[in-house]
Amino acid sequence: AVVSTQSTGMMPQLFLNYRLKSVAHLPWRAFMYKAFNTFIDDVFAFIITMPTAHRLACFRDDIIFVIYLYQRWLYPVDKARVNEFKQIFNETKPINNTS
User: Fold this and answer.
1) pLDDT tens digit sequence for 45-74
2) pTM for the whole structure
3) Rounded distance, CA 83 to CA 1, Å?
4) What DSSP line would sit under 3-68, residue for residue?
5) Buried/exposed code over 8-47 (b: 16+ C-beta within 10 A; e: otherwise)
6) Which of 12, 32, 58, 84 could form a Cys-Cys staple with 45, CB 3.0–4.6 A?
7) Which pLDDT band holds residue 25 (cuts at 50, 70, 90)?
8) In this structure, what are the phi and psi dihedrals at residue 97, rounded to the nearest 5 degrees?
């Protein structure tokens, strides 16, 4: 049950990346946390004796992680997009929304 909630928790990010065609909203630190978590799951899937179904469920996260890597390669970070701090990195002055 824990493994299925982990992989379903990672799925909305895939759909968000696909819908926006950008990975600007996936910070590098969060991405590396997901990578480390996937690696630890794989190590324990080989070390600990467990049922085959549970072992295969651990590798389901690897498939999602490979899709993350593919999206990171496919969709470049759009520097012209306004971020959550109302900044655009291609321009020298930030956007001020005073209205």
Assistant:
1) 888 888 888 777 777 878 888 888 898 889
2) 0.64
3) 35
4) HHHHHHHHHHHHHHHHHHT--TTS-HHHHHHHHHHHHHHHHHHHHS---HHHHHHHHHHHHHHHHH
5) eebeebeeebeeeebbbebeeeebeebeeebeebbeebee
6) 58
7) confident
8) -100, 90
Residue at token pair 């991405």:
31
In the prediction, which pLDDT does 70 show? 92
- C-alpha span between 23 and 73 (Å, rounded): 9
For residues 97 and 99, give the distance between their C-alpha atoms in angstroms, rounded to a whole number.
6
The Cα–Cα gap between 99 and 95 comes to: 12
Residues in the chain: 99
